[in-house]
């Protein structure tokens, strides 16, 4: 199957007979399942643990503050890279030991190379600086590809893609897939200014025959950030909206009937409760305020604490709970709820006033 063939196939017919019952039911029900599950902000990834060593083939400047990296097999044996679908990402282990996720922004049909792009965050915690310091020949250990942000082309309705800045990375393969499939799609690409937006040339080429499908929305040219009306202009009740970009744009998209999104940062805590974590039996007791995560408190006390996505799906920050497990309020992905005696400290909390003793 082509990496772009994401539509539900029509029921197969035998001569002039009616559609086979199972396939007919699948064709009717699948779009409904896709639409219902689309309301969840973050899709749960499949459990993919393929470890692979990748070599940086080259590094290019894609926009102001953005580098693109082409990654190939480090062993050079010529075997194709694992396949992926639009929306997928790689877990990359950086030289410092940090693990970070980067969306694949290349062509799924090209099994010889993976492409990722990274914007430099000068005051960030260091992952982007490490990626910007990589040079051709560097070898990285990776896991994946994984997909927490899948694209569904059902053959009905229209698609509106909204990308903010570096959020174009998972959206670019989606746009390419929609164009190849002949879907009714549009893209609103927003950012500070045009110089900061990577892959404008590729997107312009994709929309060359129908330029109205692409709208570049620059804050510098428009005098400020876009409104909900601007972002969702032309979206109807059957329009599925795919968004990736800064959290500041999310409220403007909440009115979309069907919204799929991927975040760059963890969602805000809206139902927090204050509790305590204890670092091992007899260890220090740390209060976790209602507006902070256990991960942020633990990281402040122990800077070497391992974490990655901060959204509850990668499992990097998973810790065993030695006591108090019954008080854990699990959030996030299935990984967070796998057992009652462990938690993902980036998203899971305890009941108000409870104390969790963590195996650290």
Summarize the structure.
This protein has 360 residues and is α/β, with parallel strands linked by helices. Helix content is 17%, strand content 29%.
Task: Explain the overall architecture.
With 360 residues, the chain is an alpha/beta fold. It is built from seven helices and 18 strands. It has helices at residues 21-37, 127-133, 168-181, 200-206, 219-222, 228-231, 294-301; strands at residues 51-63, 66-73, 88-93, 99-103, 114-119, 139-147, 158-164, 185-191, 214-218, 239-245, 258-263, 275-279, 285-288, 318-323, 328-329, 342-344, 349-350, 355-358. The chain has a six-stranded antiparallel β-sheet, covered by helices on one side. A hairpin with a 5-residue loop joins strand 3 (88-93) and strand 4 (99-103). The radius of gyration is 22 Å and the shape is globular.
Describe the secondary structure blueprint for this structure:
Blueprint: H1 21-37, E1 51-63, E2 66-73, E3 88-93, E4 99-103, E5 114-119, H2 127-133, E6 139-147, E7 158-164, H3 168-181, E8 185-191, H4 200-206, E9 214-218, H5 219-222, H6 228-231, E10 239-245, E11 258-263, E12 275-279, E13 285-288, H7 294-301, E14 318-323, E15 328-329, E16 342-344, E17 349-350, E18 355-358
Parallel strand pairs: 7-8, 7-10, 8-9, 10-11, 12-18
Antiparallel strand pairs: 1-2, 1-6, 2-5, 3-4, 3-6, 12-13, 14-16, 14-18, 15-17
The gross shape turns out to be globular
Gyration radius over CA: 22 Å
Spatial arrangement of strands, main beta sheet: 4-3-6-1-2-5
Mean pLDDT: 81
Main sheet: strands, sense, barrel: 6 strands, antiparallel
Low-pLDDT regions: 1-48
Assembly level = single chain
Number of strands: 18
Q: What's the total helix number?
A: 7
